Amino acid sequence: MVEFPLLSVMTFWPFIGIALILFIRGEPEVVAQNSKHVALYTSLFTMAFGLFMMANFDGSSAEFQFVEQSGWLKPLGINYHMGVDGISMFFVLLSVFLTPICILSAWDAIKTRVREFMIAFLLLESFMVGTFCALDSVLFYVFFEGVLIPMFLIIGVWGGPRRVYSAYKFFLYTLLGSVLMLLALLALYVQTGTTDIPLLMERVVPAGMQYWLFLAFFASFAVKMPMWPVHTWLPDAHVEAPTAGSVILAGVLLKMGGYGFLRFSLPMFPEASLHFAPVIYWLSVIAIIYTSLIALVQTDMKKLIAYSSVAHMGFVTLGIFTATAEGIQGGIFQMLSHGLISGALFLCVGVLYDRLHTREIARYGGIVKNMPKYATILMILTLGSVGLPGTSGFVGEFLSLLSAFQVDVIVAAFATTGVILGAAYMLRLYRAIIFGPAENEDAAAMPDISMREYALLVPLVALVLWLGVFPSAVMDKTAASVDKLVAQVEAGAGHPPAVSLKGRPEKPSPQPVSLDDVHFD
Amino acid sequence: MELVAVFTPFIAFLVVGLFGRSIGDRGAQFITCAGVILAALASVVLFDEVILKHQAYTTLLAPWVVAGNFSVNWALRIDQLSVVMMCVINIVSACVHVYSIGYMSHDPAKRRFMAYLSLFTFAMLMLVSADNLLQLFFGWEGVGLASYLLIGFWNHKPSANAAAIKAFVVNRVGDFGLALGTMGVFLLFGTIGFDAIFEQAPTYKDAYFTILGHDFHALTVICLLLFMGAVGKSAQLGLHTWLPDAMEGPTPVSALIHAATMVTAGVFLVARFSPVFEYAPTALMVVTVFGGLTAFVAATIGMTQFDIKRVIAYSTMSQLGYMFFALGVSAYGAAMFHLVTHAFFKALLFLGAGSVIHAMSDEQDMRNMGGIFKKIPTTYALMWIGSLALAGIPPFAGYFSKDIVLEAAWADHSWFGNMAFWLGIAAAFMTAFYTWRMLLMTFHGTPRASKKVMDHVHESPPVMLVPLAVLALGAVFAGWGLHSGFVGSAHHGGVEEHGVEAVHHEMSEDHASGERGVGGHDTGDQSVTKQIAQNIEVIEHGIKAAENQIIVEAEEASYEVEAWAKENFWQKALYVLPENDTVEQAHSAPFWVKKLPLLMGVLGIALAYIAYMLLPALPGAVTRVFRPIHTLLFNKWFFDELYDALFVKPLLDMGTIFAEKGDRGTVDRFGPDGGAALSQKIARGLSRFQSGYVYQYAFTMMIALIGIVSWFVFRNGQGF
Fold first, then answer.
1. Which of A8, A196, B396, B686 has the greatest count of CB atoms below 10 A from its CB?
2. What is the pTM of this model?
């Protein structure tokens, strides 16, 4: 399989779908119908490639796999270089997994310019996959910025009443960060003479320069995450975006920030990363508490979930910048889990929005009677968001907090309050929508979810539960790459600081426990 | 066997949850009841294996979270402590399952109810059989979830929903401590597996965390954080406000979750961590103080409430306080003893109250009851048994366990042990008082309900009464039956005889089963000669093994005689430093210490009889005279109001402020919106220049030219 350019095929496969859609002619309804089908099948094919990739991925190796390299902008020494390791592989998978779900979710919801919507979505898929596969920083930058264009259009064209404001806010925020990143990339190129990511990881940048470059990259990734206080574009973008847009925004686009930290910031600027880590811890803590409190008083469903996303991403940044294997594993897992859970939560909001055309929490209530299936699914997702053990939400959150406790007890204590607040706002939302007396007749009369909606939500719910019980399905494959990353940071900047202990005897090395090791008292 | 004991309720939950519609109400009730009864039988078998035959073990199931140095498995730890808990959980749960068939017979959502009950049972079993803190946390949150679902079971009632959320969120405050405690354990020990923690605990007794420049004793910090979780789950003072509200749930739920099992999880946690708590004396002190205060405060509130379920709920809280101060004085066995007896008699009281409520057409206010004891005699009798056990009257279960708890507190000879002892004595008096107040107000006196309700009063069906009877057996016999095993006793005579008999019985049974097994092989495959030869080998092997086992058992027989002695009963599951062994010292407590609780109980009953039978005007008069105190107690010491003012309102206000003043008022104002407005302003300013008048352009050019020229001039300092 070495010869087959799997990643390129996966990245550019959506363009085949785009081409087909452009060729569709006929009545507007026929065009709309056909382009939906083409888009769906294209994305399903891409997903099949993704599953194939996962099946053939060697989790024991920390090296980049499915690597492709060829000359691109030869005079500048910039190559077309693609490959995935344990860190990026699951993000690719998440992208190709969520895209068909999004397309299917837009089946009836998008009524105008269907063809253009589908094209925009396939374009988005291509750029997302490319972002996570790119192993050349220029290539990465092209994909990373490219994502903005279809997303800008999706919000700005198919969004709600304030879509233009939100779309511009989204675009400007992210672009501002990206400009700084571009400058930093140029500086890196000048300094090291290469744009190749694996090579960049090996070349040591002088400490003084690391700080500036780190901050420039940080500007871009922090906006994408989003971290406090540059998070204010997210609630607006979510509220105005159509359901599919919200799903992909929360599910994949936010993860690009975290991925960027793992791919660039930590391995290339280890000293700067550890230097700024305490600041990032506190920004994360503020994000967790501040946005959780805001979520507590929201009256708009989408806004509430959007703010909860910021809080959840706070756990991610907290875990990643502890630069420990537990923390990074936790951060990655939390991102994947959040992609599934918040994606599904936005789908759930979409289900209600399609029926009543309002996101106002108070307009619902008492719908459990007519929509028991919906109530069950939303319950599981709510619990996932709350981080109940047994759902995927718990594992990442706990590992992040666990690693934070190793480096700073106070930070961990504050961050853990997010667990209490999370329960409060999510259960409050659930109660207001699902339970109570049915005060609004139209809400109480809504039909339960259709087969199509069932097909959208059940795979996500199943994954949330499955990964909660067997997270090793992911972690076994990410472990080797994460260990390598931790080693890179340690090589560049020494051991990350930890909480000091006195009077403790030599720490015994943890003993691996095997499954057949049954012991008797 | 352990798999059956733990997972059958889960399978029942899955089947009913997924296929409920096709199996119907009857099917769902059958499957869930059968599942839990099966689990109960399995746990009795485990009791025999683990406690009588001393075979504690751990079964690993699958890896769960493995990241870096952090590695945790799904596992079932089957030792003395978990088996005792499993027996209690499964037996009480089986009773409650069966009872619910009758109690919920008018409810349209029977399937959902039964499924939730089974889910709860499973989560609780996972909690007690965990062999690491993370799985314990899984069960811990799982029971919290089931509790949330069941409190809010009647989800059309706003009060039930509010109570459900309150329970979950307040519990999360406790879980916050438990989670941090788990992280602390990992920081200190490098693992969160129980075996490793307990083995290493003594070597870490001088370790300190340095936080913000201060040194904190590591084990104390960890124990206090874990205890915070226990405070939440077991409704100890401070985080108890959810428990009375939880009575919004159906009564079987209150019996199972909020009396017998879930709320005792905190007690279990501390007992499980006895090898660590023993090295954190400050933490033990805190546990004792919390327990003593809770026992006292809850009892004072219990005396003033009118809702029959709330009276029992405060009583539960108070009894949990007893268990905690027993833990605090290192009397872990005594705490577990009280946990078991309490599970039986309190579940009995709750289900009995449910039977009353059922009979009274869903009336819960005792002021609207009275005069019904002749109409529901069986319930009345069973409630008496439960009340006698709760008040600590011999020979009922509560007498034995409450006495040893109080004696142990006295035997600790520390200021906090003494404090707990006297608070406990006062609480014992109040317990007896409010129990009889409840009994008398509910069953005696003139009927205060409407005629319609009174005509409808009827005894509950057998499906409800039989489980009550089973629990009543426990409330009668659990005390003296388990006494010597759980806490040991000064007199061993009768126990030894019993032990020897049991061993003989088991040996003959084992022998028989061994023969059966061999015989089974024999009739297997006689036609194939090769296999016969193999079979003979197998048989010989089997016989040898059986013989060996018999020999081993015979050798151990002397050991097994003592199976009901304290130290053999608990083995390594509970750990007490020799100098802290208050249970042992309690046996030699002076006469007055041993008899004072009983005296208090009798006095409490007498006072209740006087106040509610002989002088009905007395309670009113007392209330009037002590108006301020009564107001304080009746309003539950104003905890809810205090928390509302201290936490709930400020946090909501902060949320609003952050959203308006923070996000919109600051970040957006000076960030994107401000930036956009600024650039617009600049652009507008600049666009003024594009006016279209030639003279303006000319003027601008002139100015610019002059500017440029002068800049060059002054820069170079000397003309062209």
1. B396
2. 0.86
